[in-house]
């Protein structure tokens, strides 16, 4: 494996390991913040940070003809993705949210084929099926609960997954013309503006000075890592690989969550988790073979 391909895999691995903790951290922060206030704070902090980093390292200003595509990416990958996820997470459980994440590579594969961005050969399809099966094996769908408002929360999470999948696919052609940090920063500029507009009442009615230290720690993590850093790394990796490979890596989120539970909570490793990891690793290997 070349150094460049290894860097892509390490970047995608970091994204999924750090994002694996987001549902749990997000549920803890939502005990102290309304969901739309959390969405608004995410973009208010991360957007200027991403714009500053893009100008510092890339110094590219997109042409006006690129603005409509960047605005569409912002609506899909920032506004709909973040708002639907946070609203859904408030209504459903972190477990349900994790179980629905393997729908991302399925939606991405379908969108990539529909938009003609990537042809799906047997290796790609087989790899996606294996990775999704592995993720569901780790997560144990038998724990899925749809009582009360969880059903509507699950629908919102599925909407989030679909929006993010289309965002990954439509981002690929734009990344051929513009560098990754610039694409992400301008997508946040457009999508963040819509998010702030919708979340303004919740933001104005929230007193952040009353947040406990644990909520500040969780909020800082959410803004910096799963938002600013991971969006940038995903786009950087997507420019050098394929939408199917980037999406397939989302199946590692339950493995990351299980590993964190073992390391931090002292939980034991069971056979189901081992089998699931083997299936995910096999699926990623197949998708990577096609992406290469």
Keywords:
single chain; 292 residues; mainly alpha
Give a verbal description of the structure.
By secondary structure, this protein is mostly helical. 78% of the residues lie in helices and 0% in strands. The chain has helices at residues 3-19, 22-29, 35-57, 67-91, 94-100, 103-114, 122-139, 150-174, 180-204, 213-239, 243-248, 253-265, 271-291. The chain is globular.
Amount of helix: over 70%
Q: Tell me, rounded to a whole number, the average pLDDT.
A: 85
What are the secondary-structure elements, in order, as H or E?
HHHHHHHHHHHHH
Low-confidence stretches: none
Radius of gyration over C-alpha positions, nearest whole angstrom: 18 Å
> What's the tally of helices?
13
Principal-axis shape: globular
Backbone structural class: mainly alpha
What percent of residues are in strands?
A: under 5%
Question: Kindly, what is the distance between the CA atoms of the first and last residues, rounded to a whole number of angstroms?
Answer: 10 Å
β-strand number: 0
What kind of sheet is the major sheet?
Answer: none
